[in-house]
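Methods — Computational structure assignment.
A single polypeptide chain was analysed. Its primary sequence is given first, followed by the predicted tertiary structure written as structure tokens.
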Amino acid sequence: MSQITNRIDHVAWMCRPENHDAYVEKLSKLFNITFEADDGGPDFGLRFTWSWSAGLEVLSPAGDGDHAKMCWKYLDEKGEGLFAVVMGVADVDETREHAKSLGYTPGPFLRLHGDLEEAHAKGGVPFDRQKEWMRRVQDCTECVLEHWLGGNLAIGRIVTDEPNRADGGSQAEPTRVVRTE
């Protein structure tokens, strides 16, 4: 299992639903990368397209649930653009509590879990293990600490089977890019 800690895990952009595919295609072609996940939807309230090998994510609202309302609010107030820079941390709960002790008012957790019981116990969304990308992600827990410099400063614990996601303290191999042609 692989997790990035003590450095930026990924950058996420928020866009309108009608522009989502075009932005993903633009990033794919520009950087010759593959987005391993394209999921979410009205039931989740959010569509996300994620390349954990490149550390890039594109988000857009879907449906009318809580996540969709948060996305639309963000788009109405700030427009399309940078949504979050996510710092990889070993323990999201501990880091969130530390931020609170420093006077921050962190937002709620976004938790995706591979284990149904754990998802319900921690208030997260269980993975549908029938989807290949979800079989590759063991944990995804994120939290926005504050709006900062035009985007959100967030923390995350994302554990995958991606071999190039390495601890910030080790010498990681360069990010592998996959041709999409």
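Note: The first strand starts at residue 2 and ends at 3.
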